[in-house]
Design brief:
Elements: E1 4-15, E2 18-24, E3 36-41, E4 48-53, E5 62-68, H1 76-80, E6 87-94, E7 105-110, H2 114-126, E8 131-136, H3 143-151, E9 155-159, H4 164-174, E10 179-184, H5 186-198, E11 207-210
Parallel strand pairs: 7-8, 7-10, 8-9, 10-11
Antiparallel strand pairs: 1-2, 1-6, 2-5, 3-4, 3-6
Protein name: Oxidoreductase FAD-binding domain-containing protein
GO molecular function: oxidoreductase activity
Organism: Natrinema limicola JCM 13563
Length: about 210
């Protein structure tokens, strides 16, 4: 199996159909919130690889990936059933939508993008900066971490999947409150970029990670 072998330390449920996979950090692995890795595993002795964005604010000893479970998928159900101690492989980190601790942040997430958004918001708070999280999903994940962020002073808005008018309003309200990060599938990130432009902003200044 290609890539760097890493040990799975734990798997925990963090929302409906969503788990957090915690992995031991390999030597020389230096990643920032917002980046992603290519994970390789061999369920049923067949190598399968998928990209997952980091959902932990740091990678000092371990790091976390948030995995949405597709019941018909060939990898995510297998990952969700791990108990810890298993080995997978990673490549990376990849991606330029990173947070280095310098700015206030506005993290906008659709669906599985919440992991990266929460990680960036937590890293911002740890650096003494302000954070806004705008999250659209009918079945939210990482609710405990979102509540902790709010308790620590972050502005957190959670919206249902069909609440596009409220999403546009939240983006327009907060787009100048910090560096904007956007994580999600194509329709979502395109909607957010168009909203920024309609509101008089420059979507090219936002750091956007399109999940395809």
């Amino acid at each position: 199996m290609e890539g760097t072998p890493v040990t799975v330390t734990s798997v925990s449920e963090v929302g409906p159909g969503t788990v957090a996979l915690e992995l031991e950090t390999p030597a020389d692995f230096d990643a920032q919130p917002g980046q992603f890795v290519l994970l390789r595993a061999t369920p049923d002795d067949e190598e399968i690889s998928r990209h997952y964005t980091l959902s932990s604010p740091s990678v000092e000893d371990t790091f976390e990936l948030t995995v949405g479970i597709d019941p018909d998928g060939d990898l995510s159900p297998w990952l969700a059933d791990l108990e810890g101690g298993e080995t997978v492989a990673i490549e990376g980190p990849f991606g330029r939508s990173t947070y280095d601790g310098d700015d206030d942040v506005v993290a906008v997430a659709g669906g599985p993008g919440v992991g990266a958004a929460v990680a960036i918001a937590e890293a911002a708070q740890e650096a003494g900066n302000d954070a806004v999280v705008i999250y659209q999903d009918d079945e939210p994940a990482h609710e405990a971490r979102l509540e902790a962020l709010e308790d620590a002073g972050a502005t957190v808005t959670v919206l249902e999947a069909d609440a596009d008018a409220k999403l546009a309003d939240a983006v327009a309200t907060h787009r100048e409150d910090g560096q904007v990060y956007v994580f999600g599938f194509d329709d979502f990130v395109t909607f957010v970029a168009d909203t920024i432009e309609r509101d008089g902003g420059d979507p090219d200044e936002a750091l956007i990670e399109n999940f395809g």
